[in-house]
Amino acid sequence: MHESDLNQYLNELTSMWRIRHFEEHVAQLRADNLIAGSVHLCNGQEAIYVGTCAALDLRRDAVFPTYRGHGWAIACGTPLDALFAELLGRAGGVNGGRGGSAYLSAPDHGLYGENSIVGAGAPIAAGAALAATFDGSGRITVAAFGEGAMNQGSVHEALNFAAVYQLPVLFIVENNRYSELTPIASMVRSDRLYSRASGYGMRGVRIDGNDIDTVRETAIQAAAHTRSGGGPVLIEAMTQRLVGHYFGDAQLYRPDGEVEQAREDEPIARLTRLLAARGVAQAELDAIRDAAHQEVAEAAKRALAAPLADPSTIEEHMYA
Amino acid sequence: MHESDLNQYLNELTSMWRIRHFEEHVAQLRADNLIAGSVHLCNGQEAIYVGTCAALDLRRDAVFPTYRGHGWAIACGTPLDALFAELLGRAGGVNGGRGGSAYLSAPDHGLYGENSIVGAGAPIAAGAALAATFDGSGRITVAAFGEGAMNQGSVHEALNFAAVYQLPVLFIVENNRYSELTPIASMVRSDRLYSRASGYGMRGVRIDGNDIDTVRETAIQAAAHTRSGGGPVLIEAMTQRLVGHYFGDAQLYRPDGEVEQAREDEPIARLTRLLAARGVAQAELDAIRDAAHQEVAEAAKRALAAPLADPSTIEEHMYA
Amino acid sequence: MPDTATIAEPTTLSYAMAVNAALRRALAERGDTILFGEDVALPGGVHGVTRRLRTEFGERVFDTPISESAILGGAIGAALMGRRPIVEIMWADFTFVAFDQLINQAANVRYVSQGRLHAPLTVRTQQGATPGSCAQHSQSVEALFAHIPGLRVCLPATPQDAYDLTLAAIGCDDPVIVIESRALYHSMKGPVTFGTEWPTIGGARTARPGTDITVVTWGATLHTALAAAEALHEEGLEAEVVDLRWLNPLDDRTVLESVARTGRLAVVHDANLTGGFGAEITSRVAENGIPLLAPPVRVGTNDLRIPAAPSLQGAAIPNAATVAERLMKACTAGSLS
Amino acid sequence: MPDTATIAEPTTLSYAMAVNAALRRALAERGDTILFGEDVALPGGVHGVTRRLRTEFGERVFDTPISESAILGGAIGAALMGRRPIVEIMWADFTFVAFDQLINQAANVRYVSQGRLHAPLTVRTQQGATPGSCAQHSQSVEALFAHIPGLRVCLPATPQDAYDLTLAAIGCDDPVIVIESRALYHSMKGPVTFGTEWPTIGGARTARPGTDITVVTWGATLHTALAAAEALHEEGLEAEVVDLRWLNPLDDRTVLESVARTGRLAVVHDANLTGGFGAEITSRVAENGIPLLAPPVRVGTNDLRIPAAPSLQGAAIPNAATVAERLMKACTAGSLS
Ligand SMILES: Cc1ncc(C[n+]2csc(CCOP(=O)(O)OP(=O)(O)O)c2C)c(N)n1
Ligand SMILES: Cc1ncc(C[n+]2csc(CCOP(=O)(O)OP(=O)(O)O)c2C)c(N)n1
Ligand SMILES: [Mg+2]
Ligand SMILES: [Mg+2]
What we know:
Number of helices of chain C: 13
Keywords (chains C, D): Oxidoreductase, Thiamine pyrophosphate
CATH architecture of the largest domain in chain C: 3-Layer(aba) Sandwich
CATH class of chain A: Alpha Beta
Distance between the termini of chain C: 59 Å
Shape of chain C: globular
Strand content of chain A: 5-15%
Radius of gyration of chain C: 20 Å
Strand content of chain C: 15-25%
Helix content of chain A: 40-55%
Cofactor (chains C, D): thiamine diphosphate
Number of helices of chain A: 10
Number of domains of chain A: 1
Structural class of chain C: alpha/beta
Protein name (chains C, D): Alpha-ketoacid dehydrogenase subunit beta
Oligomer: heterotetramer
Domain Transketolase-like pyrimidine-binding (chains C, D): 13-187
Helix content of chain C: 25-40%
Distance between the termini of chain A: 54 Å
Organism (chains C, D): Yinghuangia aomiensis
Order of helices and strands of chain C: EHEHEHEHHEHEHEHEEEHEEHEHEHH
Number of domains of chain C: 2
Bound molecules: thiamine diphosphate, magnesium ion
Largest interface: C-D, 54 and 54 residues
CATH architecture of chain A: 3-Layer(aba) Sandwich
Number of strands of chain C: 14
């Protein structure tokens, strides 16, 4: 393995661990009622975020994920302290606690906002790409959403809108098989969702979303294609979540053994096996995991010590 | 030609003339300001209505067209007097003048209602088909809309909804090339709209919508397919309007010669040529045209003589 | 669970299970009902409100794609054909992705067809902020529905009303929006009498009698208002609390009659003030010329988006203490002229 | 057309062409503007409001698919990135197919991001009934927008305001809904002064001074109210007519000040009464304790769907005669207590 390839893998492993540990901390904070309300964790889907962001230039590109967006936020480089603080309702959160887990943004890091309305981010991402056709920025945008969102009218409109103007946008379908508690198979007759792209005259591919190499290389190609005016691309990334839809989901709807199998197939386990097979020492792999854990734990601690959002500020920023 | 075939053709010619004359009368009444507001005429698209209705049993089936729905209403058998009266704001209109040209219904004749919101009738038609899966009626439903409506979110949702439950509904796309004043080519990247059907796991076909044989036979097959539980079918019927989007449309957006060519290709001219070629006497063809004209003219006259909708009734029927 | 239809003794149920009991009765007694929505069937609803109904009623209860326009349009179409659909829109905030189907479609059916068609569908949804809920999952939007002629609108505030109003909605031959309270689903338990009659729509309820001020409210805010009334009581002031229950049909007679007695009016709601339904209540009292001892008061959320952080939500949305303070002031305010 | 930006002498323009002049100036002076919607570019709009803009401004003006969610979402996304989009939703009734993008998306941007993001988009639409217009193309829905914190809302009633308010909307750094009047597009002509300043948002206008009653109105209904005021004048009564112009920001001070002088209040709108914005105005006057000589009056459409037939529409929607009659009664009604 080339040294640069190895470094890339190790960085990706770090990034994925950072996300995983973040989510595990969030689960604990939620269980302890230090975080209030619904949280949607992305454990198991990390390769999509890390792989895609490798294709982006986040000083100009813009990412529009869903409520399940912590992984995107971290892959974009949003500071962990400010993310924890946001979920914990602290003044120092990326949105001072106003957004919360499911609707936060960090535009300084290219994260133009989670969205808690299924499908609603897709036309907004298309619009951000539309701006690029006027402002000479060379920006591309990413609209990320789940497979269930493919049945929402706004996603359809966004796909056609992007196709007709050949907008520089990547539609990333994070196909984790379930929409809340219902399997995609019971919500569509044809589950080859990427195949809808051709009806819009748009490129569509299905990939293994748990393989960091595949995600990264697909994203790099697709980004180059769309950035150079080739039009939008739809990437259906197959993955699985290792956890419930939201914190507290008992997952009774998942068949026996599914989660166990998913633990074998998840991207961190896969990259770890790959690196071990290519001769990276177990100690080094463990050190990466542990360093990420420590980074996350310290960020959480700092956020917990920070002051809550100040109620006297609630009237601010309603209008220009 | 078999006598039964000939009779069928002659009936279809009569029906198409009835629609054409109706629309021409409406245009005149609108020009004379006896009809108020927007009217959307269907001149040139008659084969779609007459051909499809041949496949329906309107005692139980249900049709959901758009504002461009006079042709559907007539093909369903709605009395001309009551249709004229509706457009003229008369008490005797199918909806007592409340619906008007663009939003009328005549459920006694299987016409469950025009719709003036682009795309909105599609999920409603799917729902009417859903009812059939519970009520044992054997009903199928027709959702008819223009090619431009294919980009509306509600149509997308309806197509997927119908596909996933294999609902007995036909989606008829009346592709007349324009949406109001804008050509479809500038609103989609791929103009093979029927090809979107496969993405939903649904049958989709494109047909010559100006050929009464093709429309009728396609509709009969599709109706049998969907009535027997085979699932929804999308039929993209290619046609052209001979007139503007609405009354008063100067049609500056249409290229030179397009309307002239359309007059050659329109379904009445085509069926007339076919029948003449098969030996039907010109006099008989003329008589059919004239009889339809007279029927329509008399209906218009009766409707014009009828009383206006009574303002004192406006509070009625708001609630059960 | 016992056969709900024949029991006269009250049973203690959570708000969520009271809705469930109503749905179960409707599905059992009315063969024309069908129930569908996102996650309502096999999973039994993300809040558990529809649980066991799929098991009991089979394919009349089914899960849908995430397609609110198809859900609502589908319900309208099925209703036109004689079914009596009950659908769930998981959050009231989500109705806006498919608002057309309610405003331009369902609401028009009966009137425009001169009564030849009707659309007896029930849309169950829920609203309100709960700690941490984001701005897209926290709004109180009843005023938008209440401005649409043709839609019936109710907001049950107790388990008994969750049961009764749900049944009344299902029995109604017009489209009804039932706005439930997520906050109350599992936190509020109370006695429910099932009765044998099928309840009908409409009618406010005087939740607490009083003489010093009339407090009009609806939905989960009732409990805020009742707590505030209790605080007033400790100060020797008696607030009469009227739970509207139905915004359409609106029982303004109960309100007018109460205000005529107390001479003071406050309206309390979680929704933001400008254009909230409190304005309608205040206006009805004013235009009916009911003499007031002091200007009427509206208590609601200031015109803000809803922040997620609990500390911020707490400051934005009326609570018992802030309401009590406003009521106290209203009770002691001077005469109008 | 002359260069609109530098002319001080008033020009006579139709309402539609006044909007057109504002759009033209915005596109010419602000390079960050883009304009899109259904049929707005090559065809110049189904009502001709955007004509010639495509020719003059090229690809910054473009036609879209029939996809209102994509249009509004697209505008939001472009606005987030520094464009200043102006979009048309052809009829206000059609906003409901994409209402989410306004309520849950555009309205939240600034507040939830603590001002780090903002969405300076202008949504032009038009509303009202015209003879024969169907129930899905006839509603007056301003109250729905005015209940949403985060959205600015205006309704120009004259060519001058069509010009000024459009520019103010475009210049505003928040999402603005401009509700135009289809009925006025070509029927109303008037003087327009272009000015050199860029107008800003907000501010009611006293369209007619008077002493006997304050009549609050907005949008095309202004002309109904003015005609009614003229009829009153012939009876010796002087109505002061306040054209709100902006429902958000709401200039209630002008209203309160006028009512304090006249002692009587009527609100007139085309929208249906229950939950209409008239309720908000009536409530503001009541809760501010402005003494009234008689109960306030709301004149609007009864809570009906809008029928298409002109004879029915005429009976449903307020006109100068019915408004004058109500105002007359209000002016002569006895004291409150
Ligand atoms: C318009 C709308 N409808 C319904 C919901 C409720 N909801 C939240 S997440 C979700 C499932 C989405 O599934 P999918 O798109 O596959 O994404 P995933 O959660 O699996 O990442 C639903 C139905 C919503 N937030 N918005
Ligand atoms: C939701 C919505 N958006 C826009 C319109 C305005 N509008 C009316 S007809 C029409 C064009 C529809 O074109 P198409 O679907 O091809 O049908 P056609 O009129 O050609 O029959 C448009 C945009 C509408 N009525 N509803
Ligand atoms: Mg999923
Ligand atoms: Mg067309």
